[in-house]
């Protein structure tokens, strides 16, 4: 399959998922209007926050489903949209936890309702509380309706129950990972590399990769061996992807990533990069700056230099490559047809290509 065909395939899948989500939000807007303008506005805000992403999780569902011989992509589109709505719920709630008011370069749900309140003359602390309160409501709506989208896929009986179980497990382990992440910020002892990897496996890899791939395999009625091989691929490529994402959050080009390279440093985010660095003698020079909301651009650059000198950047890059290689090994399973390897080879290449 050449690049033109790959682009066309990706666009077709995204169009199908977008169609499901558009219809879902159209119906929700209609229902919400009967309960008043404020509730209708909330649904409009939630839809804006569910728009503009890469639709990565639905793409994993549909890619697994079709590569394993599935012939009803409209069903896979509903299941993929369910994982996208789960993603929306988790990032809306994650922003509340992190007290963030921006997402993807614009106002998130919290930020939108904070600004509505401040425009009305409400003091900032109260306005921020209002924004986060509404975001919790919005995240709850997205989370519940993720399950409803699976119901609307047309899948019935034991297969529908199995898909519910996969979505439930994705949410269940993600909550465990989020709790670990929150606890890291409260502990006096910094987390180890292994602890950070486990947190990222639970918080991100489970619902972004493993769950969607497993769902696509189950929907395609693949063998248990094929499902487990794809799940193993998802776990490992998900960890590799997150390690690379954290690297780009510090060393990336903001024009390419669309995110600041100072934010993670000011937040004191728990990543493999910093878990390795804190065990090196070089880190003592900049340890007091890490996690400071007032961190200057010059101080951030010095932290990057220390991360280079301590070997932490090289360590994280090597670990990302190791997990990407483990992911590819999972794809070599005899339970998987060549179509699966062809489908996901670019995913592995993309992760490896983002390292350096």
UniProtKB/TrEMBL annotation:
Cofactor(s) listed: Mg(2+)
Entry keyword annotation includes Magnesium: yes
UniProt cross-references to SUPFAM superfamilies, sorted A to Z: Terpenoid synthases
UniProt keyword annotations, A-Z: Magnesium, Metal-binding, Transferase
Organism: Herbiconiux moechotypicola
One of the Pfam families matching this protein, by short name: polyprenyl_synt
Family, similarity comment: Belongs to the FPP/GGPP synthase family.
Name under which the protein is recorded: Polyprenyl synthetase family protein
Coiled coil region boundaries: none
Source species taxonomy: Bacteria, Bacillati, Actinomycetota, Actinomycetes, Micrococcales
InterPro entries named in the record: Isoprenoid_synthase_dom_sf, Polyprenyl_synt, Polyprenyl_synt_CS
Record flagged with keyword Phosphoprotein: no
